[in-house]
Prior knowledge:
By secondary structure, this protein is mainly α. 52% of the residues lie in helices and 0% in strands.
Amino acid sequence: MQGQYNPQYPQQQPPYDNDYDEQDNEDQYSEPDEPDDFYAGNAVASTYSVDQYAQQGSAATQSNRAPSPPPGPLLDHSHLRPGNQAALLSHERTLELYRANAKKTQDPDLQFEFAVFMIDASKSLPIPVETAGNVMEVERAQEKRDELIREATSLLKRLADRGHPASQYFLADCYANGIGTVKNKQDFDRAYPLFVLAAKHGHPDAAYRSGTCCENGWGCRRESAKALQFFRKAAAALHPGAMYRLGIAELNGELGLSKSPKEGVKWLKRSAEHATAEFPHALHELALLHERGIDNVLFVDYEYSTELLAQAAELGYAPSAYRLGECYEYGKMGCPQDPALSIHYYNIAAQQNHRDACFALTAWYLVGSPGVLPQSDTEAFLWAQKAADAGLAKAMYAVGYFLEVGIGTQPNARESTSYYKRAADLGDKRAAQRLRGGSNQPLHAGGGSAGAHAVLHRGPGEDSGGGGGGKNKDGKDCIIM
C-alpha cells in the first residue's frame, strides 16, 4: 500500500453528527448573508447532473492526496473567445474577461469553471523572492494571490450551497489541501461534510474521498463500516481507486473484513480494467500477485505480469516502470536482457524522482550502451546525486566516492566527507569505513569510471536494489565490494 496523509494539524472531533444517512437534509449549509453578484436575479437552487464530472477531480490513492486541480487540461475555455490577440493579453486582462463572461451567465457549470480557473491562476502567480528592497512588492503579490483564492472559494461556497456537486467536491478538495484555509493548513473538519454532500449527489470521487476520511478519522470519527459504505458506493460507479481499496482490504482482511483473496483479486481485476493515470495501482498489484501466485486463486504467469507492469508504466506509474527496468536489465521474469528497454523504463521512473531508478541510470551512464545511451561520467554523477538527495544511502556513498576521486565532477574532499557521513548515518558500512580511513586509495587501479562500479553496490539479486546497468564493457556484472 502507498503512504498515507500526514495532516499538519491534529484532527478534532467534529461537534456535528456526520452519520451517513441518505434521508439527512442535503442542504444543511445556509445561504450566505452577503449579496451574491453572480446570482442577482434568478438564483438557481437545483441539483445538477454530475455525469461530466465523474472522471474529473483529484482523489486520494490509498489515502495519498493527488494534486488539485487534476492533471492535464483543466477546462475548455474556448467559450471565452477573447479575440485573435488573446495570447498577447496580460494575465490580469484575461482574468477580467473571464470574470465578465462568468457574471453574465446563470449557468453554474460556467461559474464553476471560473472558480477553478481562479484557483489555478493563484497557483501560477509569480511571487518574487523576498529581499531587503522588495518587501512591499512581495506583500502585494501575496495579497493578489490571496484575493483570487478568496473570490474563488466564495463563489464555490455559493454554488455548493445551491447543490452543485462538482463545486461541493472541489471546495472540499481545496480545504483538504490547505487552499483557502487558515494559515494554509489542511482542514478536514470543513472538507469532510462537503465530500459527503457531493457523494450524496452521486459524485464518485467524493464518495471515495469520504471513505478515506472515515477510514483515517479525518474530520470525522474513524469508522471502518462507514468507510466501506462509501467505498462501495464509489465502486458501484466504477471508481478505480475505490475498487482497488476494496481489493486490498479483502486481500489483507482490513476495514473489518475477513481475508478473502478470491474476492480481493476480483476487485483488483475490476479496478485494473478501469485503471487511469491517477489510479494505476491495481495493475501493479495484480502483476506482483501473478509473479508469485496465490494457491487456488491465482496462478503464476510471468508473461501476463510483465504485460500488466507495462500497462501501468505507460500510465506513468514509477514503481512498475522501475520493476520493468530491472527485468530488462537482468533478464528477470522471462524478459530478454535489453539495454534500450531497461533504460527506457528506468527513465520513466526517474523522471518522477524514483530514487532507485535514478541510481540505476547512474550505472548505465558509467558504461553507456552503444546506439542507445552515450557514456557520460557527468550524467552518472548527476543521477547519483539526485538519488542521494532523495535519501538513498548507497547513492550517498557513491556520490561521496565520485567527489573524492573526481568522477563526473571536480574533486571536493569536504563535500565527499559530507555525503559519506550522511550515508554512514543511514547505516552504510562502506561509508563508515571510508570515514575511518580504511581505504584511502581508489577502489580499482586507475580510478575513474572503472573504479566507480564497485561503489554502486547493485546486482540482480537485489530486489530493492539501485537499478540500472551495473555491467562492465564485456557485459559481465561488476564485482560488488
